[in-house]
Amino acid sequence: MGFSELYDFLERLQANNNKAWMDENRKEYTAIRKWFVSWLDQMNDRLAAIDPDYFDTPGKKGINRINNNLMFHPERPIYKDHFSGGLDQLTKQGDFYVHFGISQSLVATGYYSPGSDILKKIRAAIDYNGDEFVTILKEKKFQETFGGLWGCDTRLTNAPKGYSSDHEFIELLKFKNYAVEYSFNRADVFKPAFEDQLVMI
């Protein structure tokens, strides 16, 4: 069991995205899900070994549901086109997110759509020490790996409450997301050093 079976299952699921097909193939899905949980467990152990601030998150806790939330998005198909999970879930927002899908595969981390309390703290940190943040964003390695912040196209039109429109870091303060993303293709997943690459990002 491995990524070959995972991708193959996802392709067949998307061609037959209905409960009847899933029920007929649930044994296979359960086996792949169990394997993916074990893969997340291994990544959890590796990340914990190199980061003293890492929050232990077993694969069973980190894995996401394959069902789409039809209550809020009734237009979506019943099942997602990917397997995914979030590790380092201290806040359930600033996690280490991995996503293996038919149309997209990626690893992401940071704060995507954080709650108001966390957003206020991030903005306060930028207000206090924005120079250091800007230096990191401009680093050559950061630019080559991530290109910039993920989801920065969604930002406030005006200055957030408590900050002037002429603040030195006003454009950063307007962001609603403070996350980064690294995309990879299916061929990358099968390279011998793939897991090593993920850990070192």
| Biggest β-sheet strands, sense, barrel | 4 strands, antiparallel
Distance between the termini: 26 Å
The tally of strands reads 4
Global mean pLDDT = 91
Descriptive overview:
The protein is an alpha+beta fold and 201 residues long. It is 46% helix and 13% strand. It contains nine helices and four strands, in the order ααααβββαααβαα. It has helices at 3-15, 19-24, 26-50, 59-62, 116-138, 140-146, 170-173, 186-189, 194-200, and strands at residues 82-87, 96-101, 105-111, 178-184. Strands 1-2-3-4 form a four-stranded antiparallel sheet. Strand 2 and strand 3 form a beta hairpin. The two termini are 26 Å apart. The mean pLDDT is 91.
Keywords, please?
four-stranded antiparallel sheet, 4 strands, 13% strand, globular
Question: What is this structure's SSE topology?
Answer:
Layout: H1 3-15, H2 19-24, H3 26-50, H4 59-62, E1 82-87, E2 96-101, E3 105-111, H5 116-138, H6 140-146, H7 170-173, E4 178-184, H8 186-189, H9 194-200
Antiparallel strand pairs: 1-2, 2-3, 3-4
